[in-house]
Design brief:
0% strand; mainly alpha
Amino acid sequence: MGFISFEFIAMVLVLCAVYYCMPLKYRWIVLFAGSICYYYRCSGALVLLLAATTLVTWWVGRRIGFTDGAKKENRKAGKFWCTVGILVLLIPLVYVKYAGFLAGLLHISFSTEHIIVPIGISFYTLQMIAYLVDIYRGKYEAESNVLKFMLFSMFFPQILQGPIPRYEALAGQLWKGHRFEGKEISRAVQLYVWGCFLKLVIADKAGIVVDTVFGDTRYYTGVFCLVAGILYSVQLYTDFLACVCMAKGTAGMFGIQLGDNFAHPYFADSIKDFWRRWHISLSSWLRDYIYIPLGGNRKGKIRRYMNLMITFLVSGLWHGAGFSYIFWGFLHGFYQIAGEVTQPVRRRIRILFGFERLADQEMNGDLQKGYVWVQRIITFMLVMFGWIIFRAPSLRDGLHMVRSVFTVPNFWVWFDGSLLQLGLGATEWIVLLIGCGVLLLVSLIQTRICIRDRIAECHILLRWALYAAVILGIVIFGTYGYGFDANSFIYGGF
């Protein structure tokens, strides 16, 4: 039961009706029951694995049981139980995601056909590891109510694909009953509808071309790979952003605010800036629970670079078992290190061409803006080449595709109609490009004003007429047909 289904919408409407009819202090029980039903509907009996994992985490959290000012001997016991809890949490994740890969490396015969990956296991595992580590650090006390903790770990809008919540940001919102607020419901509906637009009009259309090219990497080379790389970058972003918008919109209907997971990542002017904007909840998790514990930037440049590389390798492995993911993580670690090492040279170049001057004149201001967009384009291209390797069937195929972009000069593909043979007709290409244009325009406007606030301030008739028009546009121009599954989000596979 994915976000784009009548069954999901009906479930949310029923839960909302029951939620706002219940007394305030019991409303969290509605969310708890709804979350269990939703996960059972998505994963069946595997809900028992999630429940067992949650119970173990809750019990270990209680065992850690120390806050700031605890005695030194209690810290040792807390460290022991924290380590045990993390290992217990990692066992199911390592087994279902990496057993086959590790067996292949060790040349051990091992069939993965019997393994069923629980939905959202990568996300809720990180969520509960953060909970245990934060208790050990004395950030807050362990939750005493096991049912409330289960709601925190199983809250249905974010359980499948995040964003990865922190206990201190989400838990209090879940226990507290929220009153019905028409303006907040309106804002939540906006997010959900925007997510449908991103998924059906952009991501799924781009995915048709992406699947065609990446499905035959020996036949499609050069410009085909460049187009597929660009479209996969768009597909991955809009698909994941769509899921996050729907999750935030659904949670918002109950008065609960989930954190932002993206901040216009393709407006980044460096790889470092990109990771401040992309999958923010994962990036901050890696920073707080991998990079900083390794020493961060406190032990010199060489150690800092090692910590960066280890962190990005962990990020690659988190996304999946395979050399493509490992190389993708290595590549982004290399990008960051190379960016820092070459910073003095790049600064001299900027000074040479006048980009470091104060923009106190109109010409200088235009030069600054132009230079920023050049940086953004270069950053996007670097990220895009990484996405090609990330998406390719194998590391060898990914490197072959990237190499062919520079070595196969089939420029005529742009003009001879070959792009119309990749699964989209001329009209569908136009709709996709218009959709991307709308996304770009909205993103530029969002850097200056909050569009949702402006829409929420409109008269109710105008506001709902706009919703209806957008929904009608999605129904008319969205991608449907044989094999279509609007419930399949890319990050659900991670």
